[in-house]
């Protein structure tokens, strides 16, 4: 069984919150043809998308063609809207969570759903997470790498992570609002350099800020193979050793990665092998970033091309690890 852990979806009838609320920053859908649209933010094209983003029948057609049995559906990060008033962001999250849950209910053998929550208000986020898991039947929550510029070790998020651990809710951390994006206007560097760096900052903050030490049973998957985090982990350890006055944890950073998972979207078999050697094959999950331009086609190809990995381990990375991460027996 092949499970694509990293895919994104959005409702075709996505509402225009700019008409309902003030702000002007809400992402909207502007149709360009019967099978295409633009995601617009502040009057500018943020991303071009196709009906693959909203049509489950089209997705299943692609899955059959690319030999994917199950997709894990998550919102597009630009819709997180952490900048907005919590009640308004909650309304947007509920629309997407309901749509994902409905899609899963229509095709339960093909899709698994992750929800979104308004992290700018942890109390509201916990309430919507409760609804996602216990009412809608979603299997985890996707969150961004920062909340309005505050890293994930911000004290305001402690209760949210506490409830994630208590309820055994898996988290999928996806980069958004990347650091230094003002320096990356050309070459789409925000996607190729900014996102991996942003993800590394999120992972490092969770460790060095003491979140993982406080909540050791948290299960967290980082998009795009963890970005640059796996490769700078020895440097983080070095920093912990040479700056003892900055320590907030009892052990160096590498001690706290036992519950870190990574998708396989690293574009090179050598990088997959590095992740396997560093963290173990049981924490690598096939993920393609369907249906966007930077996605892997066909999903799982980089795992299939990874040498010196036994067949049992390869099959686990292609499917079983994702189901285990999502608490699906």
Automatic annotation (TrEMBL):
<keyword id="KW-0479">Metal-binding</keyword>
<dbReference type="InterPro" id="IPR032465">
    <property type="entry name" value="ACMSD"/>
</dbReference>
<comment type="subunit">
    <text>Monomer.</text>
</comment>
<keyword id="KW-0456">Lyase</keyword>
<keyword id="KW-0210">Decarboxylase</keyword>
<dbReference type="InterPro" id="IPR032466">
    <property type="entry name" value="Metal_Hydrolase"/>
</dbReference>
<keyword id="KW-0862">Zinc</keyword>
<dbReference type="GO" id="GO:0001760">
    <property type="term" value="F:aminocarboxymuconate-semialdehyde decarboxylase activity"/>
</dbReference>
<comment type="similarity">
    <text>Belongs to the metallo-dependent hydrolases superfamily. ACMSD family.</text>
</comment>
<protein>
    <recommendedName>
        <fullName>2-amino-3-carboxymuconate-6-semialdehyde decarboxylase</fullName>
        <ecNumber>4.1.1.45</ecNumber>
    </recommendedName>
</protein>
<comment type="pathway">
    <text>Secondary metabolite metabolism; quinolate metabolism.</text>
</comment>
<dbReference type="Pfam" id="PF04909">
    <property type="entry name" value="Amidohydro_2"/>
</dbReference>
<dbReference type="InterPro" id="IPR006680">
    <property type="entry name" value="Amidohydro-rel"/>
</dbReference>
<feature type="domain" description="Amidohydrolase-related">
    <location>
        <begin position="3"/>
        <end position="327"/>
    </location>
</feature>
């Amino acid at each position: 069984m092949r499970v694509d852990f990293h895919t994104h979806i959005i409702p075709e009838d996505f509402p225009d919150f700019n008409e309902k609320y003030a702000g002007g920053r809400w992402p909207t859908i502007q149709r360009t043809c019967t099978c295409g649209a633009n995601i617009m933010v502040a009057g500018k094209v943020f991303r071009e998308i196709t009906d693959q983003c909203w049509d489950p029948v089209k997705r299943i057609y692609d899955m059959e063609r690319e030999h994917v049995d199950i997709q894990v559906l998550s919102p597009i990060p630009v819709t997180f809207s952490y900048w907005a008033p919590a009640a308004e962001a909650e309304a947007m999250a509920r629309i997407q969570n309901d749509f994902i849950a409905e899609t899963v209910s229509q095709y339960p053998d093909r899709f698994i759903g992750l929800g979104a929550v308004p992290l700018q208000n942890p109390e509201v986020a916990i309430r919507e997470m409760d609804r996602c898991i216990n009412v809608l039947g979603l299997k985890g929550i996707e969150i961004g790498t920062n909340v309005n510029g505050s890293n994930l070790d911000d004290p305001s998020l402690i209760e949210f992570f506490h409830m994630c651990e208590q309820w055994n809710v898996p988290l999928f951390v996806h980069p958004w609002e990347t650091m230094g994006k003002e320096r990356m206007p050309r070459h789409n560097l925000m996607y190729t350099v900014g996102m991996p760096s942003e993800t590394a900052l999120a992972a490092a903050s969770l460790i060095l800020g003491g979140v993982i030490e406080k909540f050791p049973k948290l299960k967290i998957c980082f998009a795009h193979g963890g970005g640059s985090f796996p490769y700078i982990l020895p440097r983080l350890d070095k920093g912990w050793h040479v700056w003892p006055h900055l320590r907030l944890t009892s052990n160096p950073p590498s001690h706290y990665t036992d519950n870190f998972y990574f998708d396989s979207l690293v574009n090179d078999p050598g990088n997959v092998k590095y992740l396997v050697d560093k963290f173990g094959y049981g924490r690598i999950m096939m993920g393609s970033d369907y249906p966007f331009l930077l996605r892997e086609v066909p999903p799982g190809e980089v795992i299939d091309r990874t040498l010196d990995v036994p067949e049992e381990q390869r099959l686990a990375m292609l499917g079983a690890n994702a189901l285990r991460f999502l608490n699906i027996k």
